[in-house]
């Protein structure tokens, strides 16, 4: 909402927001090329798909949570509430996955919980926890890999270092900004259709027809917006030349190489630690198995 | 020296068989500011797109005739090879922003044009300072999506100015802005034009734009140049021809004509409210037999007949995320009222309207219609009582044809087929949509979509019609069409609630006004009490409607002007 800033009629005098404060100065001396960060997190993300133990993904999740808490410094109450919510969601997810674990995986392990017809084996619980932690570990690595990089920097790095033509990179960046707009439009169309009442039958077919009716206004709006943006970009010379000047070009420096190497070594070290402690379990498929 | 030479311009879009523009000729000299007017769909925007080569290079279309800008033929120069001579600003502030900071945004064009690296940032910072958005790096690193609409349009102007073009083309740059932001924008554009930049401006709200214009060019519905001349010659001298074309002149000219100051052709009528005020202050003129209508002659306010309450809002607070969008709003809307909800962007207008119509679920017991709690209504009960018209009519279409669209609400109610057919036929006739009954609603023109959305809101016979900024982004002719329709509905007994920025519109049509500021209700009173209260409007951050500003300027020593705020308050005094 722009309400607060507009209430005075002089929005330009409001304090700079956090988004800008996150990039103080134009290019502070210590900026790591986004590609270096991605190079650090990509191998463990792939590896995590094949990991089946609890310990390894837990390490990466803990690392990301620690980093997030250190950077955002939440107030104690918020931290506590967040912790409780996370614990509840985590427990619930683990239970769901434990209950859907194939019986042969947990067969023979100890029964930890009996609730009427429901029996939960320790093996199922462990497998469920491993699955949930694998997902959180992947999310954590994605967040860590993107932390501190702006979209503009990533675009610059893709063009300058990976030599992807800028005509493909920038439109992709702009398209990402459609997401909040689309989310708002969905809410409006949803409300509009709700107040008009529904004629379709209940059940999956009715839901499908309803969804298709919502899709048309959303598509129409999004295409029109995309056309306007594309005209506005063309009018400002986008695509006029085969290359484009970059006012502060991203570089891949010795520092980036050093950070990348250290990061990769650290990641390898964590996997080694997990193996040395006897936790690491790797399988040949991404599907749950044991 | 001629900067733009357009000869015999006509455009055919690949999606259509017809040609837009009937072979239009237009010359623009260096430093000239041309105001381009014409009815909806006459090809103003298309002409604008040809000036920097977007037509035919970026938009799939065929261009007939030639357009030369600074000697370059736009048919052979794509937009990228023209943006150092033509800068463009479009209507929608949201659809022109592609970067994460103001600075990146202004640098974007310079980077595309391969400006030497060392020059880019200083030039961008200079332009940002010039448009008043940022004079420090910290301000330049703000996120553009956090700016107000008016500021975003200034940013778009900064981006167009950065490559130092000789001409700026602006296509309805203030259509989505509130009056105060519009005024600011034209002050800024006036300063830019004074430095010698040529401007081609398409605009429908002329009060502020007319000040910067050197020449006015009016197109007719076929896209031919009908009138051209100085703003005074065209806007005042040919006012009746503009009427016939459906182009509205500035408020000052409309007011002067109503006062009968200059006869039928108000050739010498001033174009600005300030100008008109000083003419009216003139001793020689005050002797003439004109003046505002006496209070008792003015249209009798229907306030007295509204006895019963239709909508009751009791201490309504709405939180979205961390912010209170509405705080403790209480008001009751009488049956038969025409209520306008006004306030700045973010004041909570749309949220209030949404709660009154049940589009947003208010907390239980806070909003009642006819005594019944709106939060408990089903969709069917709701649309029996309230019709809601969304800002974008497309959002509420749920079927594949105009007739089905109208029938939808009746079928939801389980009405028999014969009755549905009869009621749909009546509605098609009443809203002049019969020839489109099998057409997909998305294929209609904007004005027709709007009519259809009002018709669908009304077909279940609700007593209350709520409209969220129905005239937003539309020209005066289209807006006028809708307002005439709403007046007819109101006269026939429908209670109307409208959210709008246009206070002159409120003055002419509404019976009551609710003023919101930062989520709180500042006032809810009959329209004349609110719009004559300059201090109240100032507290809400709003500019009084143009006619009221004129009256305020004249009121000292002329008590009859103290009560004036409508165009219809003005008329030649009969002997």
What does this protein structure show overall?
The complex is a heterodimer of chains A (290) and B (575). The N and C termini of chain A lie far apart (50 Å). Chain A has a two-stranded antiparallel ribbon. Chain A is built from twelve helices and two strands, in the order ααααααββαααααα. Chain A has two domains: 3-8 and 32-156 and 253-276, no CATH class; 166-235, no CATH class. With 290 residues, chain A is mainly α. Among the domains of chain B are: 86-164, no CATH class; 295-398 and 462-544, 3-Layer(aba) Sandwich (Rossmann fold), CATH 3.40.50. Chain B contains 23 helices and 22 strands. In chain B, the strands form five sheets. In chain B, strands 6-7-8-3-9-10 form a six-stranded mixed β-sheet, with helices on both faces. A six-stranded mixed β-sheet of chain B has the order 17-18-19-14-20-21, with helices on both faces. A four-stranded antiparallel β-sheet of chain B has the order 2-1-4-5. In chain B, helix 12 packs parallel to helix 23 (546-554). Chain B is globular, with a radius of gyration of 25 Å. The model of chain B is unreliable at 296-304 (pLDDT under 50). Classes of the chains: A mainly alpha (290), B alpha/beta (575). At the A-B interface, helix 1, helix 9, helix 10 and helix 11 of A face helix 3, helix 4, helix 5, helix 6 and helix 15 of B.
What is the number of beta strands of chain B?
Answer: 22
Tell me the name of the CATH homologous superfamily of the domain at 295-398 and 462-544 in chain B. P-loop containing nucleotide triphosphate hydrolases
In total, the number of strands of chain A is 2
- Major sheet attributes of chain B: 6 strands, mixed
Q: What fraction, in percent, of the residue positions of chain A are helical?
A: 55-70%
Question: How big a fraction of the residues of chain B is strand?
Answer: 15-25%
Task: Note the total helix count of chain B.
Answer: 23
Q: From N to C, what is the helix and strand string of chain A?
A: HHHHHHEEHHHHHH
Helix % of chain B is: 25-40%
Measured on Cα atoms, how large is the radius of gyration of chain A? Answer: 24 Å
Supply the helix-strand structural class of chain B. Answer: alpha/beta
Number of separate helices of chain A = 12
Biggest sheet strand order of chain B reads 6-7-8-3-9-10
CATH fold assignment of the domain at 295-398 and 462-544 in chain B:
Rossmann fold
Q: Structural class of the helix and strand makeup of chain A?
A: mainly alpha
Give the mean pLDDT of chain B. Answer: 89
Domain ABC transporter (chain B): 4-247, 311-543
GO molecular function, one term (chain B): ATP hydrolysis activity
InterPro entries (chain B): AAA+_ATPase, ABC_transporter-like_ATP-bd, ABC_transporter-like_CS, ABC_transpr_CbiO/EcfA_su, ECF_ABC_transporter_ATP-bd, P-loop_NTPase
Family (chain B): Belongs to the ABC transporter superfamily.
């Amino acid at each position: 909402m722009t309400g607060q800033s507009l209430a005075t009629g002089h929005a330009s005098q409001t304090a700079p927001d956090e988004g800008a404060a996150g990039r103080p100065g134009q290019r502070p001396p210590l900026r790591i090329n986004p590609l270096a960060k991605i190079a650090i997190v990509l191998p463990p993300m792939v590896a995590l798909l094949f990991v089946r133990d609890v310990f390894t993904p837990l390490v990466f999740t803990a690392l990301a949570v620690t980093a997030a808490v250190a950077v955002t410094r939440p107030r104690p109450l918020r931290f506590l509430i967040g912790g409780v919510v996370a614990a509840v969601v985590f427990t619930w997810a683990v239970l769901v996955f434990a209950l859907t674990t194939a019986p042969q995986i947990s067969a023979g392990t100890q029964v930890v919980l009996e609730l009427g017809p429901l029996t939960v084996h320790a093996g199922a619980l462990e497998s469920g926890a491993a699955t949930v932690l694998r997902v959180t570990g992947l999310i954590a690595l994605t967040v860590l890999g993107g932390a501190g990089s702006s979209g503009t920097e990533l675009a610059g790095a893709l063009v300058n270092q990976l030599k992807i033509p800028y005509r493909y990179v920038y439109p992709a960046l702009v398209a990402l900004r459609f997401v909040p707009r689309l989310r708002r439009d969905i809410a409006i169309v949803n409300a509009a259709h709700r107040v008009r009442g529904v004629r379709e039958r209940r059940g999956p077919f009715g839901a499908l027809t309803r969804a298709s009716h919502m899709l048309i206004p959303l598509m129409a709006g999004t295409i029109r917006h995309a056309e306007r943006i594309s005209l506005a970009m063309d009018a400002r010379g986008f695509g006029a030349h085969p290359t484009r000047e970059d006012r502060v070009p991203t570089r891949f420096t010795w520092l980036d190489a050093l950070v990348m190497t250290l990061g990769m070594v650290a990641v390898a070290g964590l996997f080694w630690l997990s193996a040395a402690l006897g936790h690491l379990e790797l399988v040949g498929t991404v599907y749950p198995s044991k | 020296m001629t900067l733009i030479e357009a000869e015999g311009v006509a455009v055919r879009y690949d999606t259509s068989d017809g040609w837009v523009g009937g072979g239009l000729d237009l010359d623009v000299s260096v430093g000239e500011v041309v105001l381009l007017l014409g009815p909806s769909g006459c090809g103003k925007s298309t002409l604008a797109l040809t000036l920097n080569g977007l037509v035919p290079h970026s938009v799939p279309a065929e261009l007939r005739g030639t357009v030369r800008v600074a000697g370059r033929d736009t048919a052979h120069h794509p937009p990228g090879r023209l943006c150092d001579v033509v800068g463009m600003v479009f209507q929608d502030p949201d659809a022109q922003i592609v970067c994460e900071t103001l600075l990146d945004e202004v640098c974007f064009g310079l980077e595309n044009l391969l400006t030497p690296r060392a020059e880019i940032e200083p030039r961008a910072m200079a332009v940002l300072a010039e448009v008043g958005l940022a004079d420090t790096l910290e301000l330049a690193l703000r996120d553009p999506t956090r700016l107000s609409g008016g500021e975003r349009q200034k940013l778009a102007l900064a981006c167009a100015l950065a490559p130092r073009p000789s001409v700026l083309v602006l296509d309805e740059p203030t259509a989505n802005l509130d009056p105060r932001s519009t005024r600011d924008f034209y002050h800024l554009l006036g300063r830019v034009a004074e430095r010698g930049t040529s401007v081609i401006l398409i605009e429908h709200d002329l009060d502020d734009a007319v000040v910067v214009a050197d020449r006015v060019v009016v197109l007719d519905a076929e896209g031919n140049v009908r009138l051209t001349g100085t703003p005074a010659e065209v806007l005042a001298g040919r006012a009746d021809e503009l009427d016939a074309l459906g182009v509205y002149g500035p408020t000052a000219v409309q007011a002067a004509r109503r006062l009968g100051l200059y006869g039928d052709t108000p050739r010498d009528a001033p174009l600005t409210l300030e100008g008109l005020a000083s003419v009216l202050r003139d001793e020689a003129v005050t002797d003439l037999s004109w003046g505002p209508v006496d209070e008792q002659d003015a249209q009798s306010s229907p306030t007295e007949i509204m006895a019963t309450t239709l909508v009751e809002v009791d201490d309504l607070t709405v939180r979205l995320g961390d912010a209170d969008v509405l705080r403790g709003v209480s008001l009751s809307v009488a049956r038969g009222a025409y209520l306008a909800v006004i306030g700045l962007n973010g004041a909570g207008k749309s949220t209030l309207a949404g709660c009154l119509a049940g589009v947003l679920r208010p907390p239980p017991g806070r909003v009642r219609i006819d005594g019944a709690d709106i939060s408990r209504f089903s969709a069917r009960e709701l649309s029996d009582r309230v019709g809601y018209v969304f800002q974008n009519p497309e959002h509420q279409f749920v079927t594949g044809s105009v007739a089905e669209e109208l029938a939808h609400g009746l079928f939801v109610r389980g009405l028999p087929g014969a009755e549905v057919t009869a009621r749909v036929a009546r509605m098609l006739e009443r809203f002049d949509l019969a020839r489109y009954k099998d057409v997909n609603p998305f294929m209609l023109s904007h004005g027709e979509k709007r009519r259809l959305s009002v018709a669908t809101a009304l077909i279940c016979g609700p007593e209350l019609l709520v409209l969220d900024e129905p005239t937003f982004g539309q020209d005066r002719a289209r807006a006028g069409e809708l307002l005439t329709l709403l007046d007819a509905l109101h006269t026939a007994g429908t209670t109307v609630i409208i959210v709008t920025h246009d206070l002159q519109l409120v003055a002419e049509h509404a019976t009551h006004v609710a003023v919101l500021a930062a989520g709180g209700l500042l006032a809810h009173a009959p329209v004349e009490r609110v719009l004559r209260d300059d201090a109240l409007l100032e507290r809400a951050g709003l500019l009084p409607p143009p006619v009221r500003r004129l009256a305020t300027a004249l009121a000292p020593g002329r008590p009859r002007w103290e009560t004036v705020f409508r165009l219809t308050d003005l008329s030649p005094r009969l002997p």
